[in-house]
Prior knowledge:
Largest sheet: none
Distance between the termini: 25 Å
Number of strands: 0
Strand content: under 5%
Bound molecules: zinc ion
Helix content: 55-70%
Structural class: mainly alpha
Oligomer: single chain
Radius of gyration: 17 Å
Amino acid sequence: MTGTQFTDHLLCAQLKISKLIVFQFKLLHRRLATNSFLTKINLKDNEQCTFCQNDTETLIHLFWTCSVFTPFWQDFKQWAVNRGELSNTINLTAYLVLRLNLNKNKRLDFYFLIARLFLWVCKTRNTFPKIENFSLFLSHYDTPRTNT
Length: 148
Ligand SMILES: [Zn+2]
């Protein structure tokens, strides 16, 4: 790797980290523009969920209660179990999915963060969230495991 390639690699990694930090900040401070919010500020006429059209599109609806996203979280759980990051006996809850409490498994916290960003990108692009696409999305952010 040349010096220029290394610098480009570092800049690219920094941009990805910055994007994650900004996304998590906006999520925690409820600054992601859901249809509910966009309707309140008169930028949209309909506050219904982009995907299911059955409920008001709030953050908790998008990231947890939406019937369209529920299969994704089930697939995500199995994916995490298969990677040895999550016990099969743990039930996913909104509190766990939104990772409002960080725990000892930082890699799992990271995967939940990427999953939330993935769902948000699906929402903004109006694409259906599939675990296969999540794996590809994750590969842009994930680093190889180390045995230290
Ligand atoms: Zn929905």
